[in-house]
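Hey, resending since the last one bounced:
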Amino acid sequence: MIETVLSQILGGNVQRQMAEHGTLIFAYHSVSKAPIGSKDPFLHVSPTRFEHDLQKLRSVGFHSTTLDQVAACAPTNSVVITFDDGRRDVWQNALEPLARHGFKAMQFLVAGLLGKENKWDTAHGDAAVPLMDVSEVRDWLAAGHAIGSHTMTHVNLAEVPLTEAREQIFASKKRLEDTFGVAVNHFAYPHGKMTPAVRELVREAGYTTACGTLHGPSSSSTNLFALNRLTPLSAPELVAKAAHRAQRKVSHHFNASLSPLRRLWSFGASTTPAPASPARA
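The C-alpha cells again:
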C-alpha cells in the first residue's frame, strides 16, 4: 500500500526505494493553478492535488515531522512539507488541508520581498505571483507552522560574490527574526544552488539545516546543510518537467547566440546612410 501511494506522489521504483532510507522532505512552491504566461507550470499544484497528496500520505501512516527533528534524527515514516518563496496562494489554499490532515509545514520566505511579488521571475518575463505579507505570515505561524529563510531577494548564491551571499544569508535571518519574534533556524537555497563556501556561510550564520533541490530522501548521513528534497510529481510529470526545462535551456542558449547577430544588424542598420535625395532641376 505504501508503494502504491508513493508511486502516485513520487516518480517510480527508484524513488520509492529511496523513500525507505530516510526522511521525505517535499518541496512545494504554489498551491494554485499555473497562471497564464507561467514559464514553469510544474511549480504549481492545484488545491485538489495538494489535498490528495496529504490524504494519501496520512492514509498509509506517514506523520508530520519538522526540520528540527530531521537535524536530531527524525523517526521513520515521517515527512516534512516545505514551501519555497512564501507565495500567497499557499496561505490561501494550504492552511485548511494541512490542518485537516494533521500536517505541519515550513515556509521559506524571501525576507526582502514580503507583500510584494516574485521579482526574480518577472525580471525574466515570467508571470507575477503575489507573496505573503507580514499579516499573512503571522497567520501561518499562529496555525502552528514554521518559517525559514530563502535569502533577502532570491539570488543565485552560487553566482554572486561571497560578500553579497553573506549579506543575503545573514540579513534575511535577522530581518525575519526581528519581524516575527521567532527563531529562524532553517534555510533553503534559491534555485537549489550552492557552493561549499556558501554552505559554510549558512552554518556560520547560525542556521541548523539548509535545503537544496537534489532529488532524494534525507538520512542521518546527509549533510545537514545540503538536505535533499522530493518534488511531489508523478513519473510522467517528472519526465514532462525535465523536457520542459530542457526546452527552456535550449531556447535561452539559442536566443543568447543570436544576440551578437542582432546587435550587429542593429549597428549596421543605424550606420547605413539614407538614400540621397534626388537633385533639383
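The longest strand covers residues 78-85.

Sorry for the duplicate.
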